[in-house]
Amino acid sequence: MFDINTLLRKNIKNLTPYSSARDEFQGEASVFLDANENAFGSPLPTAYNRYPDPMQHAIKLRLKEIKGLPVRNIFVGNGSDEAIDILFRSFCNPGVDNVIIVPPTYGMYQVSANINDVETKKVVLTEEYQLDLNGIAEAIDEHTKLIFICSPNNPTGNSINREDVETLLANFKGIVVVDEAYINFSRQKSFIQELTEYANLVVMQTLSKAWGLAGLRVGMAFASEEIIEVMNRVKPPYNVNEASQQLALQALQNVGQVNDWIKETLAQRDKLVLTLKDMPFVLDIYPSDANFILVKTTDATGIYNYLVDKGIIVRNRTNVELCEGCLRITVGTPGENTTLIETLQQYK
C-alpha cells in the first residue's frame, strides 16, 4: 500500500510554503500596490513588470482539455528538470535515502541526485534496452524512494515494456517516475491514463520536444493530487516566468500544427534509417519511438569529429554504457537530413 507520509522528508511534511502576493490575492483589480513591482511598466514592447501567475492556471486549464486530467493532477515547472529536482528535495533525505536509475538513461537524474546528496543505485538495462526487473528488485531497500524510467528512453530511443513498468508500480512502495519527454513520437500510449490506478506514479512530459518550445523551459508533471500538492508547496513561488506562460499558452492552441510536425518527423526518421543502414560504417540502427535514432558505427568518435569539421553536430554516445560506438542523431528538417546524408556519403 502506497503511503506518501512514509516517503516525505520530515521537514517537507512540516513546511509552510512562501506566500506570495499573487497567492494572497487572485482576481481582477484596477490598482495593484501589493507586490512592490515597478508600476511604470517595462522597457520592452510587452509589459513584464507584474509577477506571473504562481500556479499557471491558464496553462493548466488548457492542459486539462488536451490531457483529459483535472487541474489538481497537473504540475507546471521550469522545464522537467525542476520537477526532477523537486521530487528529490521532497522525498529524499540527503545522505540517507537512495533512488534507482536504469542506465543508459537521461543524465539529469544522476546530476540531480548528486546535487541533493542522494545515492543512486544503477541497474543497467538489458542488451535489448529493457528493464532488469530482478536487478531492480534486488537493489530496492528500505531507503529507496524513487525509481526513474525514461520511456521512450534517451539515448536509446526505444519504449520500455509497459508490463514491466506496471510490475514496478504494483510492487514498489515508493514513487515510480515515468519520464515521457518523447511520448508524442511514440507508438505507445502515455502512462497518464494509469494515474487513477497507481497512487505512486508520476508522469513527466515537456513542451521542449514535439511542441518545439525548448527555449521557453516549460515542463509538466502529472500525478495524484497529494503528490502535486507537495510539489507545489516546495517549488519557488514564481517558477515559470510570464513570457514563457504567455507563449506556451499560445502554442497550446495549435495542436494541429504540432501533429503535422510529428507526422513529418516520423516520416523523415524512417527515411533517415533506410538511407543510413546501407552505409558501410553503420553496424546497427536501434528501433526508435523518439525524434532521434541511435546508430552503432565502426568509429563513432571519428565520424563525430568528421561531421563537426563539416559544421554538422550530432551526439557522440560511445562513452555511455551499452552505447559503445554509438552516435545519437536527431531527426532534422528534410534539408538538414539531406545535408547529413550527403556529408556521410563522403566519409572515408
Give the second-level CATH assignment, the architecture of the largest domain: 3-Layer(aba) Sandwich
Beta-strand segment tally: 11
CATH level 1 name of the largest domain: Alpha Beta
The sequence of SSEs as H and E is HHHEHEHEHEHEEEHHHEEHEEH
Helix fraction?
Answer: 25-40%
Short description:
With 348 residues, this protein is of the alpha/beta class. The chain has 12 helices and 11 strands. The strands form 2 sheets. It has a 7-stranded mixed sheet, sandwiched between helices. The protein has a 4-stranded antiparallel sheet with strand order 8-9-11-10, with helices on one face.
Protein described:
- This is Histidinol-phosphate aminotransferase.
- It catalyses: L-histidinol phosphate + 2-oxoglutarate = 3-(imidazol-4-yl)-2-oxopropyl phosphate + L-glutamate.
- Belongs to the class-II pyridoxal-phosphate-dependent aminotransferase family. Histidinol-phosphate aminotransferase subfamily.
- Its cofactor is pyridoxal 5'-phosphate.
- Keywords: Amino-acid biosynthesis, Aminotransferase, Histidine biosynthesis, Pyridoxal phosphate, Transferase.
- There is one protein chain.
- Helix 4 crosses helix 5 (108-115).
- The longest helix is centred in the C-terminal third of the chain and has 22 residues, at 255-276.
- A hairpin with a 6-residue loop joins strand 8 and strand 9.
- The protein is globular and about 70 Å long.
- It is an alpha/beta fold and 348 residues long.
- The protein has two domains: 4-20 and 50-253, Type I PLP-dependent aspartate aminotransferase-like (Major domain) (Aspartate Aminotransferase, domain 2), CATH 3.40.640.10; 256-344, Aspartate Aminotransferase, domain 1 (Alpha-Beta Complex), CATH 3.90.1150.
- The protein has twelve helices and eleven strands.
- The protein starts with 9 loop residues before the first helix and ends with a helix.
- The strands form two sheets. A seven-stranded mixed β-sheet has the order 1-7-6-5-4-2-3, sandwiched between helices. The chain has a four-stranded antiparallel β-sheet with strand order 8-9-11-10, covered by helices on one side.
- The model has no long low-confidence stretch (mean pLDDT 97).
